[in-house]
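Need tokens for this chain, all 232 residues.
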Amino acid sequence: MGKYFKYAIGEIILVMIGILLALQVNTWNENNKNRAYEVNILSEISSALDRDLSHYQRMKVRLQKLDSASNVMLQHIHNKTQVFEDTLYRNGGSRWYNLRSGILYQYNSGPYEALKSSGLEKISNKNLRNKLITFYDFTFPYNAEMVLYSESRYENQVQKLRSFLGEPFTEVFDGNIKVYQKFPENLFQDIEFLELVNAINGRANYTIRHLDVQIPKIEKMNLEIKAELNNP
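Here are the structure tokens for all 232 residues:
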């Protein structure tokens, strides 16, 4: 009986060891699966931030040209320039062209929303997880509201700017017939034009300030994500 009892105990121990090994392998597989998902979703979020950063930097360049163009106009007004110069509006890269600049403010939250749907706890680094929540649920939307508020004046400002133009006419330029509309020669003496250019300049500077706040935050968030991706 003692022999059979020892044999039964040995069988039980072997079964328990097998179960424990199976559980350990299953846990290891599950952890690997979770880590693979985490790496994949963080990589997608990082790529989205790279594209957002590139987009905002291009938008900032547009706004800087708008700021420069409006400052040139304000300088002419301040100097009491008597005649509006044709060179300010004639070519595609003219001050007049830049004065009509606006931006498209958008960001890609798709990968983050996918993460939220599958469960934010999939991000094992609690500190990074909390920062992602703050960034996408508060920082990005808040800054978007500020920029959209500023840029909401764009359409009205451009329409007002165009209202100063005279009737269209044709002219030969570089061997091609072009259609132009001229501003009146006394445009720089028009108080409504001064008010408009000042408002455009204000919009440019306001939006640039918000981009200057947002761009470093995007860079910092992305660096933290990439640090986590490089962490084995």
